[in-house]
Automatic annotation (TrEMBL):
Transmembrane segments: 7-27, 33-50, 106-123, 129-146
Protein name: Uncharacterized protein
Source organism, top-level taxon: Archaea
Keyword list, A-Z: Membrane, Transmembrane, Transmembrane helix
Lineage: Archaea, Methanobacteriati, Methanobacteriota, Stenosarchaea group, Halobacteria
Length: 171
């Protein structure tokens, strides 16, 4: 995929991570403007990691469901190269799964980074009160980004076999 497509497909996780990093930099060091441009670095790192390790991340977060779905597809189609032998429509659905999985992986990683760093940033800025606020923000990031994205990734993995089931049951 091209860089522009990857950036476009990165989703809300990348947006929240960039905004969070920008706000954290502003609160810690408000003077230098060039530091604010560094707020995109964690997002770029997460996007690179999600791109290069997409299969490994999918297996980590939705491996069981994906394995069940691919086993079901192999049973339905009777062979291992079910992607290549599928129709263009089915291949497009699998490609859409990969694109959405990439997006969900970014959201999962962004939520984890935000959840792990907000208590420390909060403590640095406001002491114990900041630590408490950071923990609340971290829990929200875990719930809204990480947990929901893992659930969505598992749902996508479950549904990947549906087009194969529909196609081969009608034959």
């Amino acid at each position: 995929m091209q860089i522009g497509t990857k950036i476009w497909d990165s989703g809300w996780g990348a947006v929240f991570l960039t905004v969070y990093t920008g706000v954290a930099i502003q609160l810690v060091r408000p003077e230098p403007l060039f530091l604010k441009t560094l707020s995109v670095l964690p997002t770029i790192l997460v996007m690179f990691l999600a791109d290069r390790q997409n299969d490994r991340l999918i297996n980590s977060f939705a491996g069981g469901e994906l394995r069940r779905s691919t086993d079901q597809i192999q049973k339905i189609t009777g062979h291992d190269d079910f992607y290549e032998s599928a129709s263009e429509e089915l291949q497009n659905r699998v490609d859409d799964f990969d694109r959405r999985a990439y997006q969900k992986n970014i959201s999962i990683l962004a939520g984890l980074i935000i959840a792990l760093t907000t208590p420390f940033v909060g403590f640095y800025l406001r002491g114990t009160l900041g630590l408490g606020i950071g923990l609340v923000i971290g829990l929200l990031a875990t719930q809204l980004l990480t947990r929901r994205s893992i659930q969505e990734l598992n749902r996508l993995a479950q549904n990947i076999s549906e087009p194969y089931t529909a196609k081969y049951e009608n034959q």
